[in-house]
Every structure is written in C-alpha cells, then in structure tokens.
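INFO  loader      accepted 1 record
INFO  loader      residues=341
INFO  predictor   begin
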Amino acid sequence: MSETPNNPVLVQWILDTRSWFPSAAKTRDLEVHASRPLSLLTSTERASVLKYFHVRDAKMALASALLKRYTIARLAGVSWSSTAPGFTRDERTTKPIWRDPLTGAQPVSFNVSHQAGIVALVAVADYPGPEAQSEAGAKVEVGVDVVCTSERRDRDQELIKKEGWGSFVDMHADVFAVGETSYLKYQVLSAVPGLVGRRGGSPTPEQVADGKLRAFYALWALREAYVKLTGEALLAEWLGELEFRYFRPSRPTPAWPVPAVETKEGEEEGEDAQVLRKFEIRFRGKKVEDVNMCLRSMGPDYMIATAVRTPEDPSVGLRWRLGPYQILALDDLLSFADSAM
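INFO  predictor   done
INFO  writer      dumping tokens
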C-alpha cells in the first residue's frame, strides 16, 4: 500500500492460487478443503465460485471474491460483513463498483484480473484526499490485466505452425487496431531487438514464435487494461480506433519470486527493461496523454498491465508511481476477515 501525491492510497495486490488446496481435485472438493474461506462469502458468492467445472477456475473466482471484500473492508474502513451488499455495477458502463449502502458514496475505485492461477487487483481510495469525502470510485478510473505466455503455449505454437503467424494475428484482428496487426505481422521482430531468445546459433521456429507471442500478449494486456479502465468491454465499438504504437513486451524476470528491476525515474527504458511505463497511445488518431500505464514482468511467463486515470485533473493520476505488486497470503486475508467482522 502506498500513498500517492495529495495522499490518496493506491494499492496493487496479488493472490497466487496455484498452490491452494492441493487435495481439491475437483471443484466440489473445495466445499471441504476451502470451507473456511468459502464461509466468508455470501451464498450467492459461493455459488459463483462453485459453478466452475475446473477447480483452477473456481480457486481464482474464490480469490477474486475474497480480494475484493478485503480491499473494500480495509480501504473503506467498513466491516467484512457489510461489504457484500455494496457490490454492484455502474449504470452507464456496467463496470463492477462498490457503493456504500448507507451513503451511496463510492470510496474505492478497483479493478480485478485473473489468469493462470494469478489474481491481481488495483485500487485507489482517499481521493481527492483524506480530509474530503472520498469519491475515488466515481473520480478515478483503474484497469488491470494479467497475461501468461505459457498457459496456451502448446496450442498457440501448433496453430502458428499449421496456419502461420499472419493467420494467428488475423484471428484476433477484430479487437486490435489495423496498425497493431500490421506491426505484429511484419515489424515486431525488427522493431524489438532481442525479442527472440536463442541458445547459440540461429533461433528455432519455436523460439521465433515465442518471441512474437510475447509481443502479442503484451499488446493484449495493455489494451485490456486500458479498455477496463474505461469500463467498456472488449466488444466496445471503438476498439479499432485505439492503437498502441511501437509497443514491446517487458523482459522476463528469472523466476516468479524475483522482482522486476525498476527503471529509475528519468532513466531511459533500455532493451532489457522488465518494467515499461512509456507508451505511445492513439485514440481516433489523437495522442492519449491522460492515462498512466505500466507493464511489468513477474517471472518468465507473466506480465501485468496497469492503467490509471483521474479525468477531472489528469496531472494527478499521471504523477502516481505504479510500483510492484504486493503478493498477499491467503492466511493474512482470513485473519483480517476475522478481525473485521
């Protein structure tokens, strides 16, 4: 948790579910092995967790529900039990929000993403400041997206081998800008030095595909975080008018527990940068200059894109430092819930 200029609080939290409840082979097994965390949810929330066929998906749904409850209880200063009734959706965008049932205020702006066992959340509270009634939920826009380059690697590699890289990109062209698809298909290898790894000699076709796929998933995360910030879905009519130009992926870190090396403020983001904060974003041809974005690597496979905007005064959000995510332990959330009842 970090205080930002003007004292709002910005948090970036992660729950890693990959090692949770190893004895739960099927989703229904969670009713026994995850009975304690499930008991902290409402019957509706429990049903939304247990509806998943794959236990890995159910664990992420459980983590998402717990993390949202934890965020609201901690940042809004309300009891754990009183958080559930406030979760709803924005009337205009349908984006998930939390509205205080008593006051109607939106003290916390939050967004959640999950992929391949990882659940990430970004949230802002105490905005415009601790002395004022926090309306962060209405006055701050946030978005986050997690991607994992290895989760579908075998499928992606087989598809590229069979259909070709161009066809792979074209399959997703309806959610990319024309310039992005062209860049991915024809320019990305020459535009991003060192994108393709090699172990002596010329790179193999699989290594070339891995490099291209990393760029593809980096773009996916950046676009998704931006779109989620706006509250729109990936089916927004303007998707083709949003363009990230000359994008590149952040370089991997050696392992999941190894933090990404931060580029110091004012320093150039070199070819080996594991955290990227400089992006050229265009919307309907005009340069976007009011969104603060960050793309960071966590281990060799995961990248997390984060986006923040303060529409009434963009300079505020642009000054916020989007630092590393804090990995929370399930036991800590359970202990907090017990104390916040």
